[in-house]
Design goal:
618 residues, Methanol Dehydrogenase, Chain A, five-stranded mixed beta sheet, four-stranded antiparallel beta sheet, 5% helix, 32% strand
Length: 618
Amino acid sequence: MKRIPAVLRASLLLPALSVVAQDPHATWRDHGGAADSAQFSSLTQITRENVSRLQVAWRYPIGEDKKYFFAPIVVDDVMFVMGRGSSIIALSATTGREIWTYRPPQDTKLITNRGINYWESKDRVHRHLLFASNHALRALDARTGKIVTSFGDQGSVDLKAGLDRDPKAIALVQSTTPGRVFEDLLILGSATNQGYGSAPGDIRAYHARTGQLVWTFRTVPRPGEPGAETWPADARRNVGGANVWSEFTVDERRGIVFAPTASAKYNFYGADRVGANLYSDCLLALDARTGKRLWHYQMVHHDIWDYDAPTAPKLLTLRREGRVIDVVAQVSKQGYVWVFERETGKPVWPIEERPVPATDMPHERVSPTQPFPTSPPPFARLTFTVDDLSPYLSDADRTRFRDAILAARNEGMFTPPSRRGTIQMPGNNGGANWGGAAADAARGTLVVVSKDMPCLLRLDEKPPAEPNASARYESAFGFMIASDGVSAIKPPWTTLTVYDLNAGTIKWQLPLGDVPHLAARGIRNTGTHHPKVGPVLTATGLIFTGTRDKKVRAFDVENGKLLWEHELDTAIEGIPAMYEAGGRQYLAFCASAQAGLTPATQEPIRGAYVAFALPEKR
């Protein structure tokens, strides 16, 4: 690919600080668009009236039979993406031409592949792209793609250090999701492994220029710290998780970072972590400059279902009963929307602690109650019985799923995992996932993409690793997927939901996408299958999404009317980018995902980044 000359590179990096300061939603400089994770664009060139005229403006092929779901960011007129061997690539945002490429070392086995962070000093002398690979935080010079050797130790910071564990014993600590930049800090989460003995999920902030550790919030507290009483005495030494593997959100005006934490580990059996396990499954509000806890709300006590909240919290301003309320809204795998006042953590609508089923597993102690939001209504189905089986199942699949449902425990969302099997609905990979929501803060509009994906959990005994140690249990769980790759539950499998949070109501809801092999038989409007899709909402009232059926679509936010769609060569996942460059408004997708779940429904991946724009005026 022809490279852009150095003189032109400089012209593509003109100062844009005034635009960012005036309206961060007019650019797309951070994961999800801006620090508030709104996935919202204030650009107005593309409207309801002209969206049908969108056309491909440029295409950058990445090839490889490999899945990517990288969310592009754009700084000035330069787009940063990932492709070809997990390289980080700078492209012209107007043409898709390659400017530079950073190729990671051949021994790179793990890299932040969902997005990247950008930071610059106030004078723009230092401009860093921040990412992690092989459990180290790294910085590239955004102008050249070269490693910044003054960052950390010759360009890297060891993420396994400082976790109260032997770093050599830590199998996994690096998330594949980027962190969040606030002022001169990069606030970073982690992805601890899912099993016993995983690392604690400390939230850490590093100086974005030097890599120096600035603060740490311990989500598994040390003895004597607040929350330690909700764990066994030695939990910090041998129990992990409670990590933010997904997305942070920052209220820049208040200096608050909102962090949705995951479950403690092991995910499905917690006899070695008796207690509520703060700060797992919480929405945490921390002082972004110091890491001090301001408030928290635990959405699942002693989680043994992997019911974390993986979607970025959304910041909105509501008008209710004569009040103007700044809120943070968190959507979850269970299909709930949790809404809190931003400064205090007070729920906007009542949340009730209700009795839940008891466990039948030895040594396990579940919480007798769990919290249930009373409003807004859930965006996903919360139960799955034989009456909900899909009409499109084969006879063999129908019999198999019917027998499994009837044999399993199935007493609602918080039915504990068991030896006989437990039905989970919408499932631990259901509901909303990373990138799965967008918000128009001023109008109180929340957009959610979700999937209904029932799961069957069955616990099997694992022999103890050491003599005299207690037996452990691991889950032989499986998603209830038919032989043709679709869910056992009747459609819709993926849903697009729009809320008016001023009223606490759903404005409309519809199936999002199709399953290609069913659509070929005339079976449509089922919702696509197993997506991790990020919507983008615009000030002109449009919702844009891409899906696994290879299509990008635009909907009217007011009524759900489909206004435009375009089919690409490859399936789409992740968060698109919307930006303005050279006087044109663009919408860019990473089209590099598998169309189906099973070998029979998968196709070769011909990956590419594809940007759309209105026709150029002549």
